[in-house]
Design brief:
mainly alpha; 0% strand; extended
């Protein structure tokens, strides 16, 4: 089954300077999932059964960098390393 690319994409935005700039530049702006009001939006299930230690550490560093403005390092480690390697 092939994925069909839609001919149109609708993105509702407030009438702001940045939204007009996005139209001029043919760009879309999306919020980061960490800013969503529903914790299950964009929930991604990641299988790490066959991941190497190097890959695991790289993935953790990415998560830590993205989440450091919202959580302490201890909270991040507790949440993401309890079931990790």
């Amino acid at each position: 089954m092939q994925n069909k690319i839609p001919s149109k994409l609708y993105k509702y935005q407030p009438y702001k300077d940045w939204s007009l700039k996005n139209l001029e530049d043919h760009c879309l702006r999306f919020s980061k999932p960490i800013r969503f009001n529903d914790p299950f939006d964009c929930a991604v299930k990641l299988s790490v059964d066959n991941i190497t230690d190097i890959q695991w550490n790289k993935l953790f560093q990415i998560y830590k960098e993205e989440l450091k403005s919202h959580f302490t390092v201890e909270e991040i480690e507790d949440k993401f390393l309890t079931n990790g390697k």
